[in-house]
Write a structure and sequence with these properties.
294 residues, alpha+beta, Double-stranded beta-helix, eight-stranded mixed beta sheet, three-stranded antiparallel beta sheet, 18 strands, 19% helix, 28% strand, binds succinic acid
Amino acid sequence: MPAASLAAPSKQVFDVRPFDGQVGAEIVGLDLSYPLDDADFRRVHQAHLDYHVVVFRDQRITPEQQIAFSRRFGVLQIHVLKQFLLPGHPEILIVSNIVENGAPVGLGDAGKYWHSDLSYKALPSLGSMLHAQELPSEGGDTLFADMHRAWDTLPKHLQAAIEGRQAVHSYTARYSEGKDAANWRPTLTPEQLAQVVTVAHPVVRIHPENGRKALFVSEGFTTHIVGLPEDESRDLLAQLYAHSVQPDNLYRHVWQPHDMVFWDNRSLIHLATGCPNHLRRKLYRTTIQGDAPY
Ligand code: SIN
């Protein structure tokens, strides 16, 4: 496998092939183990903006190469659950249901609820990359919902009800619901809790690069809409969630060995559909920092 610093032997030729439906494209013919030149980087960047999730098949890349590619898009964020960071590479969060010697090797229930990565931070994620290491023979798909389209198709009375409002996001909103026998959710230390204080963001944000509006709430991390009575906030959020994840607003990613998937957390929310516990699933996630939503 080539080292990250080697130049590609010749200019890489690749295609961007949109999937059927609203969201997603496959980038065919690009080997991410080589650094991208500026022109190729710009094409990948544009595809990411246009399709919100891009898929690179059969990428035989090392953690260092995943980190180097991710860094082209911005500063990497280190996940608060330090227990599940790849040793020697804290930029990588291990997403896995595997238990070894009685201890989980990664975050086993990552993505159990619809969410946008790190929306509970003042600077939520621009995008995330997930690289498949081990895949189950059954299940384990990831669903993505287009939050631009969710806004565009939202009934006018709901648009009016949320425009200009803020919602609170909390890492701990559903944290304890993830606790189970495997203890995927270790008790947070005071230092960890200090890293995840709640934050308010606009319910409707403007994507800083494509200029489009997007809903920015999710069942995973949003607790309530600021300034509304609790029952009204709950009811409104439930309507937004149901609207966002209608089937024609979704892309389902069925993983293939060594897939690298790169999505835009400003445009999409996502959900891990899960797989039978006895089947091993392990992926490496890098998370790129975005800007403050407005
Ligand atoms: C995640 O939400 O980061 C993980 C998604 C998945 O495992 O499919």
